[in-house]
Amino acid sequence: MSKARIAVLVSGGGTNLEALLNAREAGKIPHGEIVVVLSSSSGAYALERAKNHGVPGFAVPRKGSTQEAFEAGLMEKLTEYQADMIILAGFLSILSEEFVRRWPDRILNVHPALIPSFCGKGMYGLRVHEAALEKGVKVTGATVHFVNEIPDGGEILLQKAVEVLPGDTPEVLQRRVMEQAEWVLLPQAAELVARGLTHRKERTVL
Fold this sequence. Notes:
The structure is a single chain. This protein has 206 residues and is an alpha/beta fold. It has helices at 15-25, 46-52, 67-80, 97-101, 126-135, 170-205; strands spanning 4-10, 32-39, 57-59, 85-88, 107-111, 139-147, 155-163. A seven-stranded mixed β-sheet has the order 3-2-1-4-5-6-7, with helices on both faces. The longest helix is centred in the last third of the chain and has 36 residues, at 170-205. 40% of the residues are buried.
């Protein structure tokens, strides 16, 4: 069976990457293979995680680079490794509309909240959980969205709710959201898209 070739884009520690790699090794993404990890930061520990799992990892630094040069660097590696789809797993750099259009229905992104809550400019990482606690919500969660062609393509969402408990700190809540939602949804979404791409390839061959 042919497998969809997955590129994972990261910026930091790579906990979501680790969840994807573990899920792949456990057979939970049977239609996909993680073939390369690209980081927007040369110091990201995610690259070490990739190495530990035998997956090629490369830094394509965003700092000090123009948007065009940065995206050209990403495309060079994506082309080299013949990526079929992209997973943004804690990737903090904004991608241009032109870049996204090259990957219709093939980009997944994870957000540590139930979209449309606690999203928008500046809402990433621990800030999302700080905002949830400040608002006093009883339930939060995570969302994986499949980015289609923009501006009129829309999105498909996978969401999972997580309870907010008394005494939660942003750090404690962040960990619970990762364990109960992000690390569950990401492999499910990866397999969903990979399976669709694999079937599409098979139909093309036939």
